[in-house]
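Recap from last week: sequence in, structure out.
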Amino acid sequence: MKPLLCLVIIFILLTAVSAASAQGRVYYVDSSGSDSTGDGSAVRPWATIRFAATQVGTGDTVLINPGAYEGGIIVKTGGAPHAPIVFRANGEGVIVEGSGEERDAFFIEKADYVVVQGLTIQHAERAGLRISQSNHVTVRDSVFADNGVWGIFTDFSDYTMIEGSLSYGAVEEHGIYISNSSDYPIIRHNILHHNNGCGLHMNGDISMGGDGIISSGLVEGNIIFENGPGGGSGINMDGVTDTIVRNNLLYKNHASGISLYQIDGGSGSQNNLVLNNTIVMAEDGRWGINIAGANDTGNQLLNNIIYSYHSWRGSISIPAPDLVGFISDYNVVIDRFSTDGGGTRLSLLEWQALGYDTHSLIATPDQLFADESASDYRLKPGSPAIDHGTILDSVTDDLLGNPRPAGSTHDIGAYEFALTFEVKQVLYLPLTIKSSE
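Predicted structure tokens:
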């Protein structure tokens, strides 16, 4: 056989082996199955997700049939870039209940390239899902309900992606907590509500080691409401840098809307882009955008709607040291700003005299939104936010996935106005929003 032909045959065989390895095996879990006599097949499924997690290898998929399963699941085996390990609901109604003898209901530890999809995880002692020292973990289309401390918690884990999920009722703290120097997170198209602390908390946690900085993140298309009765913003950013926060809807949160600061971060929250968000603060809320530390420089706020029902707090609070490199313009605001933490307040005209929000305007929810009483924050016909923004290359669509601009320039806020609304990316969001009891 000719050498070239041999090489071709070897290449084909290696490609076939690689493809088979990437595809992996498919296992089944059913609450009526057996961990001792089952083999993980559709006919003889295992009984618990906990046991299945000890059997998987690179590229394997665990299909979990509807039913209730005890938490305390630990995953210590990871996949590969094109062959992740997948734990996926095989139909609606897959519930992970409690955390068993563990603190967390579902714990991924030192296991890269894992996917969790379609599960409802509830009533854990601490975290519904914890991701620790594990990179490239994806959480999709899942529900985290009434967990003891957090819905989802990550530490020292890069490239985490959480999308299309619902996290509510965290008893002590946050819906989602990205912590401990975890870089490149993507948090998109989630609904975070009725959590005692933040909807989303991002904290570099230098006290825990690492560089204490969360960098190069993307937070987009999330709906975040009724969080923070125990304190904590809709979106909290401590030691977060070079991150884009765009097309998010925040309303009726009870602390701040979006906060950028440094308490336990390895640096200030610097060089972040806050673009095309709609923020409407509750009567007992704080500032719509709160930039609080002395080292939170270089941030940009463009095309945002920022309104507050509080009696004296308003749109933007930022201390004088953080004005270095600060850009704010093309926003719809309420007529209250502060450069000293809210001790004194500036009107829009006084704020503009400092060089900010030259093209911004004042408007009320009645003027802006389709039906605020029904939590419909799309723009109404004739809204002053229509065609009043600036073109942003990094914002090409809106919260619903509709393209921007629809008119001559970008609209302000999370929604681009259209006479007919086409829902695209958020179709996979949970359709039922349950209030925490």
